[in-house]
Amino acid sequence: MLFSVKMRAAQGGAHEKGGRHISGAERILSEPGLEKTVLSMLDRARTHQRGKADFISIRIEEVKNEDIVYKPLLHMESFEAADVSEGHAVAITELEKAGVTRAAAQNGISALLSLPDSLRGAMIFDAVSGKRLDGLGQRGVRVSKMDCADSADYEADLERRGLSGEHVREALVLASKVAGADDIIAELCWSDDPDYVTGYVASSKFGYKRIPVMKEMGSPVGGRIFFVKEGTDLNSLCSYLQEQAVLISLGGEENV
Ligand code: WAQ
Ligand code: MG
Fold this sequence. Notes:
By secondary structure, the protein is of the alpha/beta class. It is 29% helix and 28% strand. Helix 2 (84-98) packs across helix 3 (102-113). The longest helix is centred in the middle third of the chain and has 15 residues, at 84-98.
């Protein structure tokens, strides 16, 4: 039996009461792994570099096998960038290659740069006009119910590539679920953890493009933008992102 585990933590009260987002995490695992995962999420919320949470929600729900869809792990490629402006230039080029207009890509970068603080979720942008579509303010859309189909294999594979650590582990799974939605053209992301400056552009066509510098060291503001096709049905996209259980398979097979 599998369970979805979701954690979200804030400071100054719950997110919905104006608390500041500290950290979140989402996994799908079998029963024997639950205790360890819940404890590590609790620990993460209480010792996070963004601050100590005073609101922590951990939600555990059974996921039925027949409700799971499988999506392939994105291929990863690493780029070089000496500083933030080079990183952003790489990101814009990669977004354009994936089908986002230059204006929309630039809008996405400016939108993340001008955030007063990080959202809990992602913003959805039109890939042509660069307009924000989700209307979800400081909440954004939180992608959940995803994990790797075989976590041990996945972690060993990342380790072999010299990519250990939670950031990559989680980001590549999230990006693979997101890219698995038909309406998504590309994703832009960088972390909101002050000492983590790596980000990426991801798309189903070209994979996960890792960019080493996307913000200044010490900045607590990061975020995600999902660029979507014109005319996307936002309700069905958000229900896939938030509700559909997805396991990411290393072998690349897909069942939908
Ligand atoms: N759904 C939607 N948006 C999310 C989610 C989610 N599940 N998790 C995080 N976000 C948004 C939210 O606005 C956060 O403020 C922002 O993204 C950054 O989240 O080395 O660690 O978890 O290859 O800090 C990317 C590079 C790391 C990894 C990204 O993001 C690598 C990262 P963080
Ligand atoms: Mg973070």
